[in-house]
Write the structure tokens for this entry.
Amino acid sequence: MILAIIFVLVVFPALISWADYLKKVPAYQFVVDGEVWFTIANRGALEKALTDYQQQYLEKVDPEAQVKKISFAQDVQFVPVEVRKDQIDPFEYAVERIYAVEDEAVEIIIKKGDNFWNLAKTYNITVADLEILNPEVDPHRIYPGDKLVVSPFNPVLDVMIELENTVLEAIPFTVQYQKNNNMFTHEKAIIREGTEGEKEVVYQITLRNGYQEKLEAIQETTLKEPTNALVRIGTRTTVYRGGRVNYGVVQGKRISSTYGWRIHPITGKRRFHDGLDIAANHGNSVYAYTDGRVIEAGWNGGYGNCVLIDHGNGLKTRYAHLSRINVKVGQKIKTGQKIGAVGSTGNSTGPHLHFEVIKNGKTQNPLNYL
Ligand SMILES: [Zn+2]
């Protein structure tokens, strides 16, 4: 009798709870590259958490861009299992693991005199990578106090996003020269101004954790052809000398950035470039465009060491990012006179001359003036 009472009151409930404890329920293991990260009961809630996690990397992407595919760089699987209830992990733990970070982004604060070129050197990365890490920053417009990412945010679970974005871009015009024996070598006459063309470019983009990993133009459609400028010049040859190009104001390598609007293919943000960038060797001489008087010579914020010349008739030219300045304010200048040397001071991504033409207070496309 006593045994029966013990059985009913103690052993039986213990057996019931033991059986309940051993009972298995359906669940899912979240497996990353073959390693079980956690076990969860509600697959729907986990999928929602993963989607939220992936979507955060779309925040800074152009809303006009077409998202083709979102995936993880790692092999990610949901494996259906039967486990005891106590083997199921709390949902908060799952979220914590999904959002785990390997390396936080390293941000620096811009100081006076910093530019993309010397910062890239300091942090041992390329200028191109610095631009990729900071797609919202215009390298030509950084100011002391601004923040700049120099080392990327690196989560444990990498999100890969494939995009396609169509942007309008300018087609720069070229300048055709017509030689004239009756003109002095430094003389120029614009017969026809050039106008930029327009094209539609389709970019195929791959982002890893929001940073550009691959960017490729896969299709270009010309909407409007450019009209080349026609300039009459004195008999001296103006172009191509031993692979170098004589742009008049500097002996350069190539035009690295033209004048006008630019749309960032990832962020969709528009930027205006108010001059012509001519990539050139550090220290190359910079020459005055034409006769005039120096009205600015010295440090000028993002322009770095900069010279501004007034040529009269509402025409001014600016020469920026110089490593050296050879003229003083008020000085009279002759066409082709040396005014300084190519550098990378101010907001610059490498040694180049930023040449600006200002007519009646408005910047003009310098290609029409060279
Ligand atoms: Zn520039």
Notes: The two ends are 113 Å apart (CA to CA).
